[in-house]
Amino acid sequence: MLTVLRHPLAEHILTRLRDKNTEPATFRSLSHQLGLLLAIEATRDLPLRSFAVNTPLEPHTGGQLARGLVVVPILRAGLGMVQPWIDLFPEVSVGYVGLERDHATAVARSYYCKLPPLAGKRVICVDPMLATGGSAAQALDVLREAGAEDLSLVVIIASPEGVAAVEKKHPNVPIHTAVLDRGLNDKKYILPGLGDFGDRLYGT
Ligand code: PRP
Ligand code: URA
């Protein structure tokens, strides 16, 4: 299922991210801000367990997060979405899946994988751009094979083609995005998009 973040602040940040004149330093901090909004939205359904405390006035039964989290960025651009998870969920574990699209074919090649234990955890795969969906579908395959059961995908910009490709291979994985863009160009870049996220994040 696809959930699009609907918040005026998200649109404000996204518009500045899309602007080709936004420099890497600003691009990084805007990505961080949008990542925070997305992380809050994507964890709305996290299970809670009841937890008893004493306020200064009386006993109170509140809630505590009942499931550990693992965030898994798809290298390299996904790294720009990790810090918000660490800021909001300091206990989060971090895994890494390295995939790179071939510039001619747009097919992703795997070059790195390092994962913490995934069983019993909420596993969130993060990657800013869901274009053809090839990279995300491949990363989700890896995470499933490594034992992830409660899996979701969080992106900044999704294309209809990418959403369809992921939903076809992973129909039970919820997808959260800040926006659903129009489509892909002939080089498989998202339109209107923001260009190459990794290049803009790292100034390459
Ligand atoms: C970008 C992006 C995704 C992928 C999306 O990474 O971060 O991982 O493209 O495209 P897809 O949906 O068509 O697979 P890229 O391969 O450019 O590598 P990078 O993160 O190292 O820049
Ligand atoms: N990867 C990007 O960084 N941007 C796109 O538009 C598509 C894939």
Could you list some keywords that capture this structure?
204 residues, alpha/beta, Rossmann fold, 9-stranded mixed beta sheet, two-stranded antiparallel sheet, 6 helices, globular, binds 1-O-pyrophosphono-5-O-phosphono-alpha-D-ribofuranose, binds uracil
How does this structure look, described?
The protein has helices at residues 8-18, 24-42, 83-88, 134-145, 160-169, 197-202, and strands at 2-4, 48-54, 59-65, 69-75, 93-94, 96-101, 108-114, 122-126, 129-130, 150-158, 175-180, 183-184, 190-191. With 204 residues, the chain is of the alpha/beta class. It has a single domain, classed as Rossmann fold. Strands 1, 4, 5, 6, 7, 8, 9, 10 and 11 form a nine-stranded mixed beta sheet that branches. The protein has a two-stranded antiparallel sheet with strand order 2-3. It has a two-stranded antiparallel ribbon with strand order 12-13. Strand 12 (183-184) and strand 13 form a beta hairpin. Helix 1 packs antiparallel against helix 2 (24-42). The mean pLDDT is 97. The site of 1-O-pyrophosphono-5-O-phosphono-alpha-D-ribofuranose has 23 residues, from strand 6, strand 9, helix 4 and helix 6. Residues 74, 76-77, 99-101, 106, 108, 127-136, 162, 188, 196-198 line the site of 1-O-pyrophosphono-5-O-phosphono-alpha-D-ribofuranose (PRP).
